[in-house]
Design brief:
The protein is mainly alpha-helical. Helix content is about 70%, strand content about 5%. It has a two-stranded parallel ribbon.
Length: about 170
């Protein structure tokens, strides 16, 4: 009985070893750096971000200017005028804060713009990786650029170059 159990156990271990899974690595930073559309999208995002930040900075500067003017004139203002000026300053600061949130918040314009520019590139990369995996029977692909837990990986299993070739960007 023990021999039968041991034989069955060894058979299961051997079958599991035969059906070993294949893994591959990709370096998304390397792939994205070699795709011109990604660089153009990043440049568009940077330019738009600078324009939006300039708008926010302009309103912040207006609020600061109002505050400085208020400080210099506060001694000559009536209580009613002080309250009015303070409300103007607070309204300007609130406007700047709301604009910043509208542009750069979690669901802001920057996020939407980034999503619209990057999604097609990411989809194209995913499709190329999927096709390579299906052709070469890889079970899993790990992004070497973001996987902190990888200590060592053989360069032989890195398919980043193949992904670029599949996308039409040869090295």
């Amino acid at each position: 009985m023990k021999k039968l159990f041991l034989t069955a156990f060894l058979f299961c271990v051997a079958v599991t070893g035969i059906q070993a899974q294949k893994y591959a690595l990709v370096d998304m930073e390397y792939i994205l750096k070699n795709i011109p559309a990604y660089e153009r999208a990043n440049e568009q995002l940077n330019q738009q971000s600078k324009r939006w930040q300039a708008e926010v900075d302009e309103i912040v500067a207006e609020a600061e200017s109002l505050y400085k003017k208020y400080q210099s004139e506060s001694a000559f203002l009536s209580d009613e005028q002080r309250v009015q000026r303070e409300e103007e300053i607070l309204a300007k600061e609130k406007e700047a804060s709301e604009l910043k949130r509208a542009y750069f918040g979690p669901q802001g314009e920057f996020y939407k713009k980034r999503e619209s520019l990057m999604a097609p590139i990411q989809d194209e990369i995913y499709t190329a990786v999927k096709e390579i995996c299906e052709a070469k029977k890889y079970s899993m692909v790990i992004d070497r650029a973001s996987a902190v837990s990888i200590i060592y990986a053989s360069p032989a299993i890195d398919i980043s170059g193949e992904v670029l070739t599949k996308l039409g960007y040869s090295e």
